[in-house]
């Protein structure tokens, strides 16, 4: 009888955050830093990202909250938060996953993603970007998983979607879901609640472009408000809107 050899990777935990801590306190500063400001972030976004505990805080019962608030602040109409691990944790390859309850409403744009740690040296999109989870509020049942690089960025990334059943009244914001990628040399697999929904390899790159996902990347968590892709909030959007994160975990492959 022929022996079947499994090609499923085995993963070993190497880094993470369970967000345990006192209610109203900031996340662990040894693991997370902040990006702040109201530049629009290249997407015509409407929020000002702050490092205030009004926008980013531990709930006291094991969650991280990133809250988008409708308020005048530094010339903007909204505040929110954007956390990064740059300078604290970066890794090449592995399984990156988070359990998240996303916000909802027109104009909301939550994301769990990665950028190349060489961004300051080579710029975007040459550094590479892997969007593990993006949602725009006008698509309450759809998750986007995308990859950006030189020649396939902005509105033309390597991308795919996972869509919940149209026959159910459930939407993504109703409960926590686990969003993950498994990133290995020359392949990235995207998962929703453990279900593989797309795989990208160098063969998916447009002709004349290069696969650049072979160097350390860092993690980002944020809730944007408005922008070119989701559009602005309207009178159907209630505020504040909060993204809750139960955990972020990173694994490396056991050889």
What does it look like?
This protein is mostly beta strands and 255 residues long. The protein has a single domain (31-236), classed as Jelly Rolls (Sandwich). It is 2% helix and 44% strand. The chain has 1 helix and 17 strands. The protein has one helix spanning 119-122; strands at 11-17, 33-34, 47-49, 56-58, 64-73, 76-80, 82-84, 94-101, 108-116, 129-134, 142-148, 158-163, 177-184, 187-192, 195-200, 217-225, 241-253. Strands 1, 3, 4, 5, 6, 8, 13, 14, 15 and 17 form a 10-stranded mixed beta sheet that branches. A hairpin with a 2-residue loop joins strand 5 and strand 6 (76-80). It is globular, with a radius of gyration of 18 Å. Residues 1-6 have low confidence and may be disordered.
Brief overview, please?
This protein is mainly β.
Please report which band the strand proportion falls in: under 5%, 5-15%, 15-25%, 25-35%, 35-45% or over 45%.
Answer: 35-45%
Number of helices: 1
- CATH class descriptor name: Mainly Beta
Kindly state the number of beta strands: 17
* Major beta-sheet overview: 10 strands, mixed
Structural class: mainly beta
The tally of structural domains comes to 1
Mean pLDDT over the full residue set: 96
Fraction of residues in helices?
Answer: under 10%
Rg, rounded, reads 18 Å
Order of helices and strands: EEEEEEEEEHEEEEEEEE
Overall 3D shape? globular
Low-confidence stretches: 1-6
N→C terminal distance: 26 Å
Which topology does CATH recognise? Jelly Rolls
